[in-house]
Description:
Layout: H1 7-26, E1 30-32, H2 34-45, H3 50-57, E2 67-70, H4 71-88, H5 91-99, E3 116-122, E4 127-133, H6 139-146, E5 149-151, H7 154-157, H8 164-183, E6 192-196, H9 206-218, E7 222-226, E8 231-234, E9 237-240, E10 243-245, E11 247-250, H10 263-270, E12 275-277, H11 280-287, H12 290-295, H13 298-304, H14 308-317, E13 321-323, H15 329-334, E14 339-343, E15 353-354, H16 360-367, E16 371-375, E17 380-383, E18 392-402, E19 405-414, E20 427-434
Parallel strand pairs: 2-20, 6-7, 6-11, 11-12
Antiparallel strand pairs: 1-5, 3-4, 3-18, 8-9, 9-10, 13-16, 14-15, 14-16, 17-18, 18-19, 19-20
Helix pairs in contact: 4-14, 6-8
Amino acid sequence: MTASVPRSGAIAELLASAASERLNAECFCVGLDADAVREALDSGIGKPGLRALLEERCPYALAARPVFVSSAQSERMSALVAAIESVVALPAYRDTVLSRAPSIARHAPGARGVFFGYDFHVTASAMGLIEINTNAGGAMLNALLARAQRACCPPIQRLLPPAATAEAFEARIIDMFRREWMMSGRTGPLCTIAIVDEQPEAQYLYPEFLLFQQLLEAHGITAVIAAPADLRLRDGALFCDTQAIDLVYNRLTDFYFDTDASAVLREAYLQDAAVVTPHPRAHALYADKRNLALLSDPMQLQRLGVPAATQSVLLAGIPRTEIVDHSNQERLWAERKRLFFKPFGGFGSRAAYRGDKITQRVWKEVVAGGHVAQALVTPGERTLSGGDAPQTLKFDLRQYVYEGEVQWTAARLYQGQTTNFRTPGGGFAPVYETPDACLDLQGGPARQCAGESSAC
């Protein structure tokens, strides 16, 4: 795929994007069915008490409405994922990014890393990759969402995936963990997985850990939820209490295992005492924000030997990103209203700032080191309801990726500067792909859709 599109193709893409944008603005005939969520959790997907815990801990984790994208937009996102994966495979790229990473990132364990999250802002007129995460959360919540959507008009009902889609996604998750096990050189069956995070029971997404535990155990894999301090190394093997651990599903934001609490996990990783996924090498290759500066710089891409067609895809899809330093601080300060500033190894919007909101005091901290400046890309918008006071939220799109293959696409609805899971009606949302010529589905359900929209 290249950035240039034949005129007829460009027109078709514009029409499809406009249709999905209109659906996001006017279609209210499909949404989250709270009864279906309860039924799914109570029918064996969840452990006893999980439904109450989810409602108490994560009241705004599941969005009220889905998000629509055109198939052309989905294809552009997937093409960008494939382009990035092709660059990451280049020895010159790996040498560049690993040379500035901590030494632990140069350990090559064999496993690729589960649940990469490619996060996008997408509108009818623009698309931009805002970041890549290597421990993206929310996969199990999105599988739950897929079971709990209801549409009230036939045209939109046809866009909803079949009920078996969620089960197929969960089967791919199990296959992914088993493949990580085999790629690490293990020959026996994968028997035990530890889901590891700092103070896991205090984490916002702790209910998702329980969903993972339930899924793994349903497929014959013993699963424990643990803090890194619960782990022990004995005779070259990793244990949690008396339970030997084959694989660690790593949800830590201590990406390079630098803290004292991660010392055992660090040694287990370096000694290959257990498979750890995702791992420090994956973070260095994909999630360090400095990589976006490399991938959006035409001179650097040429130096790395990236083919011209791949360069076109990258430069069209990744907002221009620069490392902030003293040599460019005056120019970036002058341009700050068009920029977003992020720390190299940041997560969860910590220490990230919109340029038009930044203060002189914070700017000094940014210039002191450790931030990139990224050109702003406007997020999409989703209207939740009509009437005299419609509620409109922003959204981003997340593609869950494993070995370069997109496994699932989800949205996150929010208000404010970044995603926060504190917005009524917001949270994770399913993404429905509209046909490329969907300005009028079967003549349009204007008389059937609660939004009274011919685009719906």
